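Hello Y.,

Per our agreement to keep a running log of every chain we model this quarter, I'm adding this entry. I've kept the format consistent with earlier entries: sequence first, then predicted structure.
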Amino acid sequence: MPHIVRVEPPLVAEHLTRQERDRLSECARPHLTEDRLLIQLGALLEDATDGERRAFPGLMPLPARVLWAVTSTTGRCAA
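Predicted structure for the entry above:
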């Protein structure tokens, strides 16, 4: 019987500089369609620490924060 192996996400912050992460984000963003953007954001936050989750909305522009707060099922995101 095969077993399931959980692969942990890469520790990006430990392996890439802030400038490299920003560049990666710039390259990836145009490939995200609007209908997948919030799903992708949720996936990013799934493995985030509580502190990272609290800081995340502050990094988003106001319209995105409002949309995230309205559609969030956690109720922890303040716009």
